Prior knowledge:
Layout: H1 23-27, E1 30-35, H2 42-53, H3 57-70, E2 72-78, H4 80-92, E3 97-101
Helix pairs in contact: 2-3
Amino acid sequence: MEYPVIAQGTIETPTVEKEVATKGEIQAPWNVVVHNDPVNLMTYVTMVFQRVFGYPRERAEKHMLEVHQKGRSILWSGVRERAELYVQQLHAYLLLATIEKAG
C-alpha cells in the first residue's frame, strides 16, 4: 500500500535564543519586600514574620510597623532562590510580598 505525499520540501530548523544569566546576576542579592494591606491584623503580621523568618518578637514588630507606616518593609536580602521561597511562604499566610533586586 502506498501513502500519498502530502508536502514536499525542506523544513527550516527554528532558531532558539537562550537567556543566560551571568554569575554576577545569579549571586546578586534580592530583597523580600512585604507590602501593606488593610486586611491583616498587626498581631497576625508580626506572628507571620516570626514564623517565616524566625525573628524575635521585637524585630518582627519593627518590620510590621514599618509596613504599616511606610507601606512596605524589606524583611530579608540574599540569593534569589531563597527569596522566592520566602515570598511563597508569605503568600501562604495571605500577605502581599514581592522580590526585587537589591541596590
